[in-house]
Description:
The structure is a single chain. The chain has 99 residues and is of the alpha/beta class. The chain is 49% helix and 18% strand. It has a four-stranded parallel β-sheet with strand order 2-1-3-4, sandwiched between helices. Helix 3 runs parallel beside helix 4. The two termini are 22 Å apart.
Amino acid sequence: xxxxxxxxxxxxxxxxNIEKAKEYCKEVIRExxxxxxxxxxxxxxxxxxxxxxxxxxxxxxLMALQWCDKVYVYGEPSEGMRAEIExxxxxxxxxxxxx
Length: 99
């Protein structure tokens, strides 16, 4: 069983993107792994529309990424997603592009 970091868009259609992220987590569970999806978790108590809270959520998400075995990338990478992908590549964590 591996820890899989979910890298997917949040901004834009916020509600739809959260629902999609939940589906990505279910996909990881069906594969027999544990999904790590900070933008579902941190948005429960941090306000993504407030820059300071968004920055904190991004910082904590990058910390969580370091524990993971793989990063699954869904959709066109946003600025925040590019930071996640870059960190994973620097750390030698496998990045997998998903549809």
